[in-house]
Amino acid sequence: MHACMHGRGRKGDPILQPATIDGGTDENDTIAYLDRWIDVHMLGPNLGEAKSNLKFLLDTGKKLPINYVDIAWAKPVSEDVVSYEILDLGIPTGIITPQKRGASSLGTWVVKSGRTTGVTHGRISAVDVEIFIGYPIGVALFLDCVAV
Asked: Which of 99, 145, 140 is nearest to 125 (CA)?
């Protein structure tokens, strides 16, 4: 398991393409180094305990471990390893943004490109969603999400 995974990343960790899970190695496939990130705060080790912990924190007025994004930034080793296009879509990044296109409107068609799922299409079915997301190290609560 690579150090960047599951909340154990450290500034300067190598970012690989292809990733370790896809056969990449530090020696041959490092394209960037982890620079900064926003921590994801876990609510519990599993969904049942996360829900129980949420109820306890709400009942006692304690601060909730709320998340809004799961994001990290990396510094490329050189401009030669960076593409400004979205994988399998070819659209330069930064051109289409939710703010420019009103992507937070119900019924809006969206498209995404992901490592595991490839290119997928869908419609926004809900906004301001609260959702529990399971990670190998626990369950996190995210607010203000958009469901597609």
From this structure: 145
